[in-house]
Design brief:
- The structure holds two protein chains of two kinds.
- Chain A is an all-beta fold.
- Chain A is built from no helices and seven strands.
- Chain A has a five-stranded mixed barrel. In chain A, strands 6-7 form a two-stranded antiparallel ribbon.
- Chain B is mostly beta strands.
- Chain B is built from one helix and eight strands.
- A five-stranded mixed barrel of chain B has the order 1-3-4-6-5. A two-stranded antiparallel ribbon of chain B has the order 7-8.
- The radius of gyration of chain B is 13 Å and the shape is elongated.
- The mean pLDDT of chain B is 95.
- The chains are: A mainly beta, B mainly beta.
- The interface between A and B is medium-sized, with 31 and 30 residues.
- Strand 6 of chain A pairs antiparallel with strand 1 of chain B, so a sheet runs across the interface.
Chain lengths: 99, 94
């Protein structure tokens, strides 16, 4: 999975009917040092993530392995809201510190 | 599957049901010389690996098959420790 920050959502009234009722989030990819990259993905939401949340998202066929995306044309799904992570014991991100 | 070095740990209390209790760890994939290959990513750790360990991981949909519950949105899972790896006659760091 990759780390990203939810920076927006997508409203698409005209779309494949299999995507009806699926919330689509715009996620900016962050690297392991929590630096934003130039890469964005549109991912379906499976954990009620909100804008500003740091999240994990899975891609490829794995993205269809949720009740919200099963048998739907989806290749990216937000599947966790991140609380914190460290690299070799050094804290990189802590949600309660807002960074 | 690929070789990787475990580099860190990630905590996500709120995640897709079925992943409760499955540890998440940051890993750096390695090439056949043991050098970093591509960016770091987050994998489910289904073995007792920790930062510094040389491991191998599976990516794609098969990663979910390594998890306790397999109908989960997982695309990377650490599935084994590596004591020794030799490629082109060169031993890769353990």
């Amino acid at each position: 999975m990759l780390i990203g920050k939810v920076v927006g959502s997508v409203v698409a009234t005209r779309k494949d009917e299999k995507l009806e009722g699926r919330k689509l989030l715009v996620v900016q990819v962050h690297n392991h040092r929590n630096e934003p990259t130039e890469q964005y993905v549109v991912a379906a939401d499976s954990v009620q993530a909100g804008i500003g949340d740091m999240v994990l998202y899975a891609t490829g066929s794995s993205a269809r392995q949720t009740h919200a995306t099963e048998n739907r044309p989806v290749d990216a799904v937000v599947m966790a809201v991140v609380d914190s992570w460290d690299l070799g014991g050094d804290n990189v991100y802590e949600k309660w510190r807002g960074s | 599957m690929y070789l990787a070095r475990v580099t860190g740990r990630l905590v996500a209390a709120h995640k897709y049901e079925g992943l409760d209790g499955v540890p998440l760890q940051l890993i750096q994939p390695l090439d056949e010389r043991g050098l970093p290959m591509g960016g770091q990513l987050v994998a489910c750790a289904v073995i007792s690996s920790g930062p510094g360990d040389l491991v191998h991981f599976v990516d794609g949909r098969e990663a979910a098959l390594a998890c306790p519950k397999s109908f989960v949105p997982v695309d990377a899972a650490i599935i084994g420790f590596v004591e020794q790896a030799i490629a082109n006659g060169v031993r890769i760091g353990s």
